Amino acid sequence: MKHFTKPIYVAIWAIFTSFLLVAQVAAAERIVSLAPNWSHTVSSLGAENELVGVTRYARFPQSLPDKIARGELPVVGGFTDIDIEKVIALNPSLVLTATGLQLNLKRELEKRGVKVIHMQESSLDEVYRGIDALGQTINRAEASSLLISQIKSQLDTIEQQYANQPKVKVYYEINYFYKCVPGADSYITELIKIAGGEPVFAERSGIAPMVTWDEIVNQNPDFILLPMWPGATGPIFSGTEAGSGTTTIDEVRGRVNANKVTAVIKQQVKFIDSAVTKQAGPNIPNSARLLAEAIHGH
């Protein structure tokens, strides 16, 4: 039997490792994330270096805004103002979109031959399926499975922690101008329940069904949660920018018949960081914790 000398073994090993390196480079994706929760998820799966484009709302993890600030990671827009030509110019192998607001964008990208994974954010199970699909697509199946397990485990712990707390009615005001709430097709509805709250109008279909202030007064919520995020501007009630920014607690107190609402009477109108609560990805447990702390005060 013929035996190889040590130099030959070294040469064969060098060729083999070179082949593996080439294969890994060839398999690397060029991912453009059009939603901050997707950007965070890609990073959590260990594929942050495969991100070639994100939005200006990419806040988590901190390494992403740091890269943006250094000019190392291109920004292709916000959320509803994505520049599709910038996206195409980045030559993506995969684009990640989210919610009904980006469905037309998804369709246009697919028309142009771009592979898209879309997350509607309609339920926790649908979010988990999206994370799993991403992991399978970018060769991070094990990491995605682990992430999903971690999220579920943390949510179970939070739910058990608040299971014996009194149930309270919660009005989560997604937008002060359009008066919409998390509906039957929103994972946020599930998180409020996990945190020990009873979201008003949770039975209405859709991700964010509209309501009226009179309906809210009649529901008489114990807590009113208002979205807040870094750099948020004040409320605008007219013109093309109406509904932009966020509102104030004083504006809520000044609404018609607000003095009849328990949340106002007991000073339980609170801000909540929507940059966390509206991110359907690794931040889901943090979202549940913020909701629980806002509702229960600890």
Automatic annotation (TrEMBL):
Domain Fe/B12 periplasmic-binding: 30-298
Entry superkingdom: Bacteria
Entries under Pfam families matching the protein: Peripla_BP_2 (PF01497)
GO biological process terms, semicolon-separated: cellular response to iron ion
This protein's UniProt keywords: Signal
InterPro entries tied to this protein: ABC_Transporter_SBP, ABC_transptr_periplasmic_BD, Vit_B12_bind_prot
Protein name: Fe/B12 periplasmic-binding domain-containing protein
Lineage: Bacteria, Pseudomonadati, Pseudomonadota, Gammaproteobacteria, Alteromonadales
